[in-house]
Amino acid sequence: MKPALVRLAGLLVTAAYATLIVWVYARQPRTVRQLTGGMAATVGAYKVDPANFEEGLRFFRNDQFMEARAAFERADPAHQDALVQFYVAYSFYRQGWGRVYKDAALYRLGLEAVDRAIAHAPGGRLVVSDGTLGMHTADELRAELQRGAQRSMSDLNPMKVFEPRK
Amino acid sequence: MTTGPSAVRESFVLPLVLLTVAAAGGLRLAPDGVSLSFVPPPLIALVLAVLLMGVMARAGLLLPAALVGDHRTGLENASGAVVVLTLFVASAQLFTCLTPDAGMLRLLFNLFFVFLLWNTLAAQPDRGRLLRSLVVVFGWAYVIRYIALAALADPQGGWTRRIVTALLEGASAGPVAGEPMAPLAGYVAFATVALYMVGLVLLPRARPVEAVAIVTRAPDTLE
Prior knowledge:
heterodimer, A: mainly alpha, B: 223 residues, mainly alpha, two-stranded antiparallel ribbon
């Protein structure tokens, strides 16, 4: 093989490897599953497990939020699917929602999940046509979680106890 | 004059070895053994990497003229520049790997590296001596961070912990906080340091001075 070809191939391989490393450092996967799943997603080989997703939805609709998140985690271990992450965020919202008190810690976890959902949605826009939900877009959910995670004088408004859970 | 390194070594082996060091150097494995994170090089690591490359160039371990120059084609210069660039990134990440992530110990480690490299720069060692010196410097940093400090943080540290605690007793004003890490972290760091040293050994060498044949006439032929 000609030395010029070897050098050209070496440059291409090095560029691809360097890009992969920069991608890993930029995405900051937190587990090996996220790392491998993220890599698979970049080449379009990542798939959500439908059985676990359906199970998660069933738990979610029964207000069994921790069980739902465990099932969603199995369905989307790499946190790459916008829809699954939307439901994870929604489960944090519903679990953290209270008529007189909202759990800011759970809302913050919900914000992280909805940010992942927005990041993976095409064009950053996600619409979920699920009749059981009060909010159908990731933007609405994000705004609601953000409001709940912050403390303000409006929290003292007694009329807030009449606000419905969405 | 320098020998032209083989195209395969310069185009494939060196960049891939050094990039692997760069990737693994920032890998942090949490004590739970599941979580991981990737730490980019802090600014001080970049400064230390520049200093280290200066020491390498001074000692003849890194020969910039053998990698980039007018005597080489554009493609050869590109692959030579990639070697220099990946060596810089790998050096920075090696310091990230060997330095604690926070606290007073991080400052002490960085000062330790700065003074040692400065001293080595002033000593002007040759290639072989610099390689041996770097093995000692990185080896000690590895032992302190991944064996001594890890043992201090491990409640089940056993004899290692007792020995380190006894050695540090009286050497510091207060208790030295260990750094909890996954058992696998030490193995990854060891492989990273070893791979970096392999990369340094594979860098192109200076060509030995060619023998000059001096032909003289025998005295009798001069007559």
